[in-house]
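Hi everyone, sorry if this is the wrong subforum. Our group has a chain we'd like a structural model of before ordering constructs, and none of us has done structure prediction before. Sequence below.
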Amino acid sequence: MRSALICGAGGFIGSHLARRLKAEGYYVRGVDLKYPEFSTSAADDFILGDLRDPYVCKHVLDRPFDEVYQFAADMGGAGYIFTGENDADVMHNSALINLNIAPLCVRQRVGKVFYSSSACIYPAYNQQDPHNPNCREDSAYPAQPDSEYGWEKLFSERLYLAFQRNYGLRIYIARFHNIYGPEGVWRGGREKAPAALCRKVAEAPNGGEIEIWGDGRQTRSFLYVDECIEAIRRMIASNFTGPLNIGSDEMITINDLARKIIRISGKRLSIRNVPGPEGVRGRNSDNTLIRQVLGWSPNYPLELGLRQTYAWILQQVKNAATTPAEEVTQLSCANGLRGYSG
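Answer:
Right subforum, don't worry. Here is the predicted structure as tokens:
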């Protein structure tokens, strides 16, 4: 039986991957500060632990797993990443985890290591035109990410590449572009645009309005979580180290994203654009390389993914409305680290 360790298994992508690996017949160990919020973990063995702590990491990585998936990171949406108020924690927490995990993977002779980087590593100067952003994998340098989150991800990419060169660690690096879907963070301040807008629409009274940060003409692409998992599995079965974009190339403005969700809801709502953190003006996954090296690229329509996501978030909103406030637990991070304060 093949074995896998998922760091950040209590988070959004990690919990979905655990289900996929179990379906493929893996023995799965998960580690996180918290169990998955919205479902039972599929992992055979789930360790509650802080991966900033070397002792915890040694306990978790106590044998030569066939595959290690490193999703754990201090992260969130624009409201968390771009205010500047969380920069020190973001850099310290995430870097420390990777500095712990990389040498242990060498010591335990792990077969393959997958590291989840981010589209936030791409230079801000290539993403000023909302209609023509450049996020090709080889455009990362000269480096100028738009946030400290992006700088930490770029550092950790180089960390894993150095361990590959110097110690023969077999690594795979993917740059995720806005993964969304059911069982993701939908409130609490760290949710990303699709979940935040689905929540706003679900909570708004018919005939009301929702707020959108910025002028709403900034562009992004969004990848449904099932296709993210498929891309991960295809990449780790290949011989391509990366970095590799894992994202959709169906670009849309944030205002139009909101309009899609409003149509799905069946409500009559207006949009009010207000000042707020919004990041770069344009970002879209360039999928040229993934088609070349994997012979595949994501193609799940945004409309279908939003319908499934909205239906799930609408149900969460209804459930929350009937749950006493003191019993409601809010997520603070989508990918595994929750409540870290440095």
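For your construct planning: Residues 238 and 294 are 7 Å apart (CA to CA). The chain has two domains: 3-180+223-246, 193-220+250-283+300-327.
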